[in-house]
Design goal:
Largest sheet: 11 strands, antiparallel
Structural class: alpha+beta
Number of helices: 2
Shape: globular
Helix content: 25-40%
Order of helices and strands: HEEEHEEEEEEEE
Radius of gyration: 23 Å
Mean pLDDT: 86
Number of domains: 1
Distance between the termini: 74 Å
Length: 240
């Protein structure tokens, strides 16, 4: 009888533990699904309402361990029109002609290609383009905002696709920061490229404020490219 009761106790305990973990996993999946729905909705709202924008972008290239003295810089005026794409006007450039020709100008061309109709949809941070999983159910502070952190993996390889961590506003799902490794090298400077991009809320929509890409290659060694975004002017859809 004692042996029977002991076996029964172990069985009940095993079922209880299994139910606990199933419930915990279910709650985690539910939390992930909620955040992912917010992310998809935030992207859809931005796509629907932001008809275009202009901004000023400052590109800087650093070599080796010196991130105080850029070897090349370029300032451009970026214009985006929904359904048309991006265009750039170079306002100024200085420094290494090699870095400008083989580093920065190809980056601008890459951004132009990415934002063409038919391409731009593939770069959106949505569950259609990325596998997403909530890293933890709790909320964390980032850039003085309540954020949820998602592990993201691109469903296809492209220079603008990043595998890593996506932080989104815990209340509305808008992007706050992305940090990870590019699934494909964005330029000849790059071997494996680690990328970070930060966003702020402008007129109710997330817009990039700073980006950083670090790579190493046998040809160029360690290279860091930073981009600072400013002077945004948005065209927003009004009414229904």
């Amino acid at each position: 009888m004692a042996v029977w009761r002991s076996a029964w106790t172990r069985a009940i305990l095993g079922v209880s533990i299994a139910l606990f973990f199933c419930t915990a996993n279910s709650a985690q999946e539910s939390a992930s699904a909620r955040v992912i729905r917010l992310v998809d909705a935030a992207v859809a709202a931005r796509v629907e309402h932001v008809l275009g924008f202009t901004d000023t972008e400052r590109y800087s290239v650093f070599r080796g361990n010196d991130e105080s003295h850029p070897v090349a810089q370029m300032t451009v005026r970026d214009t985006y029109k929904k359904g048309v794409g991006k265009s750039y006007v170079v306002l100024s450039e200085s420094g290494s002609s090699i870095a400008l020709r083989f580093g920065l100008k190809p980056l601008l061309q890459n951004e132009t290609n990415i934002n063409l109709p038919g391409n731009v949809e593939k770069s959106w941070f949505t569950s259609a383009n990325f596998k997403m999983n909530l890293k933890s159910p709790g909320v964390q502070k980032l850039n003085e905002r309540d954020c949820s952190a998602l592990e993201v993996t691109p469903r296809q390889k492209a220079p603008n696709m990043i595998a890593g961590t996506l932080w989104v506003d815990a209340h509305d799902g808008s992007i706050v920061q992305i940090d990870g490794v590019a699934s494909k090298s964005p330029s000849v400077f790059a071997g494996t490229t680690h990328m970070t991009r930060q966003y702020t809320n402008i007129m109710g929509f997330p817009m990039a404020t700073h980006a950083r890409a670090e790579s190493n290659s046998s040809l160029f060694g360690r290279t860091v490219v930073t981009i600072d975004y400013s002077n945004y002017e948005l065209e927003i859809k009004t009414g229904k």
